[in-house]
């Protein structure tokens, strides 16, 4: 008995050993107190002698922090060295002087160059040398560079890790804790174009860890206008090599890793953007309110104000991340009924719902294909426009010759009765001057009742459009996502149904139980009638300015938010049904009394801007022009979007 048991164990152990596969997934290191991740992919190999490399490894750790330093001056002196190091430190959050443990100097300046202390050597033009200045600091004799046969592969300047045992060189990623809970997981690129989940973790809020590569590796070019731009992607877009959750744990568990990256994400990657992680979405991109509805995953934290206001949904992760993290440049979200605009408004950043149909949504979970759009959330209006050109290509007008000179407003305050209203009116006044425009207040419901389309048969706008949105999202998503998910899940789990959060369940039930099976066809018909009326009678296109007018409405007014159901008609529904762009501009911040801190805190004030279909490019250009004119400001990260103005307010009023 005992003997056969032993033999069985031996056989098992042998089988396991014989079939083992082991792969390297990178490693984490701490350099001068900062956590880094060395990518598992070799970017180059230094053919230096083994004893030279091992002598450089003074820390007992195989990986030596290395800086590839590029010098274009005629004489590489100490002051040039310090200037380059200063520039790297200022330009890049990944580089720190600990990476000067080893220096690979690429001297492309004129010949010969004197390399003074701390390196102390002579270089001819285009000569490259590897220095170990940690030795140079103690002895000027040892400061000589070492000859080596050079890179197998040329790599850009920046911080790297060099293996003392093999000479292999790896990219360095700085690690940040996702303290706001904005991400679902950190990603790193594989060499075949797919991605892997980042295998690193650091201390901080018990949240995922995100790795960002050095900015010094990237140079923007015409072909790579987004080179090095750090991109977070809402977790309804597929990315090859990793799973898509759509905000649902059962969905994440059920389906295998994706093998194709969504078209929209791939366009951004091809233009040089660096995907650093997947970001949270409310479940199946339906509207959810923090924290009651977020059962499967906790809602991200909106850092503005007291830090406990709703981040809005469904592109909550990108909104919360852009509001909080200097190390995240742009988020890719989606907007079906306000899912980019809502998070942009309350997290205080730029955000666009584009004209409908500008980019393929292949590889993206649908809510309603007739309403779904892909757009951005960012603090930087210039990057916003650049990224839009990549994502939408020629589908956004860029041939307009002037900005519109007609401003329409809806729901705008008429007096500066509070801080937010004062900010909105101040922005409107500056915009009017900037555009040399006339401003007319409109009420869409009134316009509709006095000069609405005959096809609507006199129905009020609320009766005509009030259920278009909930009908479309519930019936279309049920067909396209829910049914196949239920069938696949049941097949894999003995007929069981998966858990789904309350909000999507209530919406799907509405489409199944409360309206007729052909309600979608009716809803699309009503939507088309509205769209045609809007384009003809409210905001027509224009040959010079693309759009005859722009329409402004208040986005957020520094009021702590309350949940609302998705029925009814409001100004924020116009873009959904008329397929026109609706873009959020942050214009300031206003105080409210926090029930949490028991102090006055500040929340963003934002404006939404609409134009005719396809005129997205004109609004992007307007955001740039207003920023250049000082009328718009780039919002900061953190509790206050405008720290300077906050201190001015204190000086004036306190
Ligand atoms: C460092 O940056 C400054 C400002 O951009 C530039 O003038 C200087 O030439 C840079 N130093 C080197 C060594 O490239
Ligand atoms: C580097 O190589 C050159 C030419 O082969 C040689 O003259 C020089 O002495 C070498 N320097 C060192 C530090 O080995
Ligand atoms: C990608 O995945 C799909 C669905 O699992 C599968 O049908 C297809 O064959 C895969 N394609 C490749 C190239 O592996
Ligand atoms: C503003 O518009 C008015 C009337 O359309 C015109 O006379 C004036 O020249 C314009 N001013 C500027 C600065 O464009
Ligand atoms: C949908 O129908 C159910 C059952 O008839 C009802 O209880 C519920 O209030 C309805 N919901 C809506 C949004 O109309
Ligand atoms: C479409 O409009 C008609 C006419 O007002 C209205 O009765 C109906 O409820 C609307 N249907 C949908 C699905 O929006
Ligand atoms: C811009 O292009 C569109 C579509 O080609 C055209 O209809 C419009 O007239 C053009 N506008 C200008 C100012 O050239
Ligand atoms: C906050 O409360 C204080 C005390 O009631 C009040 O004076 C102040 O105006 C309030 N601030 C805001 C922004 O409502």
UniProtKB/TrEMBL annotation:
It holds the Pfam family Amidase. InterPro entries: Amidase_dom (IPR023631), Arp1_N (IPR058329), AS_sf (IPR036928). Residues 1-20 form the signal peptide. Residues 54-176 form the Scytalone dehydratase-like protein Arp1 N-terminal domain. Keywords: Signal. The keyword Signal applies. It comes from the Eukaryota. Residues 220-380 form the Amidase domain. This is Related to D-mandelate dehydrogenase. It comes from Phialocephala subalpina.
């Amino acid at each position: 008995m005992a003997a056969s048991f032993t033999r069985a164990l031996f056989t098992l152990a042998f089988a396991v050993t014989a079939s083992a596969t082991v792969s390297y997934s990178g490693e984490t290191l701490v350099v001068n107190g900062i956590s880094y991740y060395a990518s598992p992919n070799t970017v180059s190999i230094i053919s230096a002698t083994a004893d030279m490399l091992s002598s450089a490894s003074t820390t007992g750790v195989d990986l030596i922090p290395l800086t590839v330093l590029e010098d274009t001056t005629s004489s590489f002196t100490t002051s040039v060295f310090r200037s380059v190091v200063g520039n790297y430190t200022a330009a890049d959050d990944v580089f720190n002087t600990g990476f000067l443990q080893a220096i690979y100097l690429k001297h492309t300046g004129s010949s010969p160059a004197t390399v003074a202390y701390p390196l102390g050597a002579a270089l001819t033009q285009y000569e490259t040398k590897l220095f170990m200045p940690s030795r140079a600091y103690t002895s000027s004799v040892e400061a000589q560079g070492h000859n080596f046969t050079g890179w197998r592969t040329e790599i850009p300047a920046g911080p790297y890790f060099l293996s003392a045992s093999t000479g292999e060189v790896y990219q360095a990623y700085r690690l940040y804790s996702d303290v706001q809970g904005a991400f679902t997981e950190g990603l790193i690129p594989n060499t075949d174009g797919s991605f892997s989940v980042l295998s690193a973790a650091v201390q901080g809020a018990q949240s995922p860890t995100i790795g960002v590569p050095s900015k010094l590796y990237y140079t923007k070019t015409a072909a790579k206008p987004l080179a090095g731009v750090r991109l977070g992607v809402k977790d309804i877009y597929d990315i090859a090599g990793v799973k898509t959750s759509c905000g649902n744990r059962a969905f994440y568990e059920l389906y295998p890793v994706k093998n194709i990256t969504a078209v929209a994400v791939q366009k951004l990657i091809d233009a040089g953007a660096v995907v650093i992680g997947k970001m949270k979405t409310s479940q199946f991109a339906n509207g959810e309110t923090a924290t009651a509805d977020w059962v499967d995953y906790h809602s991200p934290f909106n850092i503005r104000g007291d830090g406990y206001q709703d981040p809005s949904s469904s592109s909550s992760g990108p909104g919360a991340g852009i509001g909080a993290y200097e190390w995240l440049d742009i988020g890719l979200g989606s907007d079906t009924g306000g899912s980019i605009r809502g998070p942009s408004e309350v997290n205080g950043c730029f955000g666009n719902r584009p004209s409908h149909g500008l980019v393929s949504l292949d590889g993206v979970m649908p809510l309603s294909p007739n309403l779904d759009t892909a757009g951005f959330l960012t603090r930087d209006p210039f990057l916003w426009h650049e990224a839009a050109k990549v994502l939408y290509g020629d589908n956004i007008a860029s041939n307009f010759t002037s900005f519109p000179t007609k401003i329409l407003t809806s729901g705008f305050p008429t007096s500066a009765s509070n801080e937010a209203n004062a900010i909105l009116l101040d922005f409107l006044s500056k915009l009017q001057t900037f555009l040399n425009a006339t401003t007319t207040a409109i009420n869409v419901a009134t316009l509709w009742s006095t000069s609405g389309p005959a096809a609507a048969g006199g129905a009020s706008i609320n009766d005509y459009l009030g259920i278009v949105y909930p009908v479309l999202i519930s019936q279309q998503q049920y067909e396209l996502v829910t049914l196949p998910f239920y069938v696949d899940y049941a097949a894999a789990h003995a007929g069981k149904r998966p858990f789904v959060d309350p909000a999507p369940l209530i919406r799907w039930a509405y489409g199944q139980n409360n309206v007729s099976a052909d309600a979608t066809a009716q809803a699309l018909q009503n939507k088309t009638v509205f769209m045609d009326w809007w384009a003809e009678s409210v905001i027509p296109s224009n040959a010079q300015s693309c759009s005859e007018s722009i329409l402004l409405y208040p986005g957020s007014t520094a009021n702590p938010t309350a949940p609302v159901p998705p029925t009814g008609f409001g100004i924020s529904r116009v873009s959904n049904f008329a397929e026109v762009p609706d873009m959020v501009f942050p214009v300031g911040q206003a105080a409210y009394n926090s029930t949490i801190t028991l102090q006055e805190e500040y929340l963003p004030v934002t404006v939404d801007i609409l134009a005719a279909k396809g005129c997205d490019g004109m609004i992007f250009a307007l955001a740039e022009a207003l920023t250049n004119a000082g009328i718009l400001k780039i919002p900061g990260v953190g509790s206050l979007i405008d720290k300077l103005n906050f201190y001015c307010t204190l000086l004036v009023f306190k």
